[in-house]
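[09:14] KT: can someone run the structure on this one? pasting the chain below
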Amino acid sequence: MFIEKGTPDGHEEVFRDAADEYVNVRAGEVKMRIIQLPHPVFTRDGETLRMSLNITLQEALMGFEKTVTHLDGHKVEISKPEGTTTQHNEVMRISEEGMPKYGMNSDAGDLLVTFKVINPTNLS
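[09:31] RB: done, structure tokens below
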């Protein structure tokens, strides 16, 4: 039995002739319903993945480079160059880093990264 990457939540897959069989009785079918479990980093909205990324005030003002581990284990580089600023709740869209498109595994949705600027509690 094979479940395709990117299969949507609630989708029901039917596997014919996959259940127990008996003498003079044809094998039945197995029905599986996909239930999406929550993830601590990513949330899914169809083919789009969303995540929040905490950055320091210094990183928001001076630029940064961060690496995030994706659901399938590959690394995604997220960066803002020096000389640009990042606002609290600013959203960055990274194309083709979302969920695989159901029925078209070679394509993927987008990853939306929301930046959360962590302000210092005191300055020295």
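[09:33] KT: thanks! The first strand starts at residue 12 and ends at 15.
[09:34] RB: yep, looked fine to me
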